Amino acid sequence: PWLRLGVLYTRQERYRDAARAYQRALSLDPRNAAAWNDLGNVRLKTEALEEAAEAFSKAIGLDRGFGWAYSNLAYTYTLQGKYRQTVSLLLRSIELLEADKDKAVSWNRLANVYRLMNDYENAIAAYQMADKLDLGSAAAREMAALEATTEKENDEPGAAVIEEPQEEPVDELAKTQPIHTVKVEAPPSEPVAEPA
Question: Does the global pTM surpass 0.90?
Answer without folding.
Answer: no
